[in-house]
Design brief:
- By secondary structure, the chain is of the alpha/beta class.
- About 35% of the residues lie in helices and about 20% in strands.
- It has a five-stranded parallel β-sheet.
- Helix 1 links the parallel strand 1 (about 5-10) and strand 2.
- The structure holds [cytidine-5'-phosphate] glycerylphosphoric acid ester.
- [cytidine-5'-phosphate] glycerylphosphoric acid ester (C2G) binds near residues 20 and 92.
Length: about 130
Amino acid sequence: SKRVITFGTFDVFHVGHINILERAKSQGDYLIVGVSSDKLNFEKKGRYPVYSQSQRMKILSALSCVDEVFVEESLEKKPDYIQEYNANVLVMGDDWSGKFDTMKAFCDVVYLPRTPSISTTEIIEVVKNL
Ligand code: C2G
């Protein structure tokens, strides 16, 4: 069986997230999701997520296309996670195109097109302005 791994924050879960997870799953049989920790998110984006990491993990675990979730503590640990979870393919949205090509030493790397015109940042702005 083919094991797929993907990573992300998945904050304020939306249809762009489900689209990439379903397409990631269809690259194989078993989907593992590394969920960025609150701390990693603060380091990456300078703010904490709206939903805590335990809430984000609970939402992801409840999806039928997701088989396993774990906390992603560091972007640099990708090789460790890929090996620990025996992943055959790494899937990321194309906003990360080329960024994880060094992982080709460990598994296949696939970048899928993002769902246009939806993002957590945009949802936050819309809600702010209500
Ligand atoms: N995504 C998408 N379409 C959107 C929005 C997001 O396909 N409209 C995808 C992204 O490309 C990514 C996944 O959904 O593959 C999760 O997106 P984010 O939560 O924004 O993830 P990010 O903070 O970029 O974290 O180690 C990698 C990082 O942890 C990725």
